[in-house]
From TrEMBL:
Domain EAL: start-end pairs: 24-277
Coiled-coil regions, chain positions: none
Name of the featured protein: Diguanylate cyclase/phosphodiesterase
Residues included from the entire protein: 414 to 697 of 697
Source organism: Maricaulis maris (strain MCS10)
Upper taxonomic lineage: Bacteria, Pseudomonadati, Pseudomonadota, Alphaproteobacteria, Maricaulales
Length: 284
């Protein structure tokens, strides 16, 4: 402690706190460049039919091709983007890129809807629904080929916002999914009133369902609820044949997970979708 009193450097730097604040500052600056310099890329992960594996959809997942650190996952930068106010710009960019891509698939005869994640701040911004309509128009994509994924907590925390922003888009045919379903604290009464088309069963339940009785009951309950409400379900994070078998037996219709395909660049996705459709046609 005698050292500390004498050394100004030791007093100036509180190692952990200042280091992470500094790193965050660097990250935010780099992220600004990333947007300006086209370093963001969108990967697409197939959603497939439980029954025959045919590709029935795609989720757009952003990646950052960082000049030195390599390909970064959204977990490494989405939160920073929200905090420094770049999420609106990034979200719009992903939305536009995904709409253009789905329109290109359609031109090749692949009518595959694309799903885009919407962050809380993006959803709360004024003009959210207008920016979606602009992206559709710019890409010349029919609204029914776009799905927007909102997490259960976003939907829960902004009930008025949901009605105001979701309904007009939904009236035009845009579909809405609740992402990470089952992890929030929504009341049943509330959920049955929300204007959604799809429940995406959170991957934590899928991961545990073959070993944990409670996780299996949660999945069963979500599937039964979706059936009564006539909503579609997607089981996320399907990694093993056992999970696939169990979900299929329970009547789940769509799966997304590493067992079928990982998120991939757009070009690979077109090949995957084309092949999955061809395989099916041959099998029939
Ligand atoms: P999410 O929307 O729940 O996306 C699914 C995540 O699960 C993706 O991670 C995907 O790669 C991963 N995943 C898919 N199948 C499996 C599997 O079988 N096993 C495991 N362990 N993981 C699987 P990713 O791409 O790292 O994205 C993480 C989260 O980042 C997303 O979760 C979403 O909340 C957010 N995100 C991604 N792209 C965007 C975006 O463009 N905008 C916003 N606002 N958020 C995004
Ligand atoms: Mg999602
Ligand atoms: Mg619809
Ligand atoms: Mg999810």
């Amino acid at each position: 402690h005698a050292k500390r009193a004498g050394g100004s450097a030791a007093q100036f730097f509180e190692p952990t706190m200042n280091q992470s604040a500094f790193e965050r500052l660097v990250l935010e600056n780099e992220l600004r460049d990333a947007v300006a310099q086209d370093q963001l890329v969108v990967f697409y992960q197939p959603k497939v039919l439980m029954t025959d594996g045919a590709c029935a959809g795609a989720e757009a997942l952003v990646r950052w091709q960082h000049p030195t650190a390599g390909l970064l996952s959204p977990g490494a930068f989405i939160e920073a983007a929200e905090e420094c106010g770049l999420i609106g710009e990034i979200g719009d960019w992903v939305l536009r890129a995904a709409c253009r891509e789905a329109a290109a698939w359609r031109d090749r005869g692949l009518e595959i809807p694309v799903a885009v994640n919407v962050s809380a701040m993006q959803f709360e911004r004024d003009g959210f629904s207008d920016s979606v309509l602009e992206a559709l128009a710019a890409a010349n994509l029919p609204p029914h080929l776009l799905e927007l994924e909102l997490t259960e907590s976003i939907a829960m925390e902004n009930p008025e916002r949901v009605i105001e922003q979701v309904q007009p888009l939904r009236d035009r045919g845009v579909n809405f999914a609740i992402d990470d379903f089952g992890t929030g604290h929504s009341s049943l009464a509330y959920l049955t009133r929300m204007p959604f088309d799809v429940f995406k069963i959170d991957q934590s339940f899928v991961r545990d369902m073959t070993t944990d009785h409670h996780a299996r009951i949660v999945v069963e309950t979500i599937l039964a609820m979706a059936k009564s409400l006539k909503l579609e379900t997607v089981a996320e994070g399907v990694e093993t044949p056992e999970q696939h078998q169990m979900l299929r037996a329970q009547g789940a219709t769509l799966a997304q997970g590493f067992l079928f395909a990982r998120p991939m660049p757009a070009g690979d996705f077109v090949a995957f979708a084309t092949e999955s459709h061809t395989d099916r046609a041959v099998g029939e």
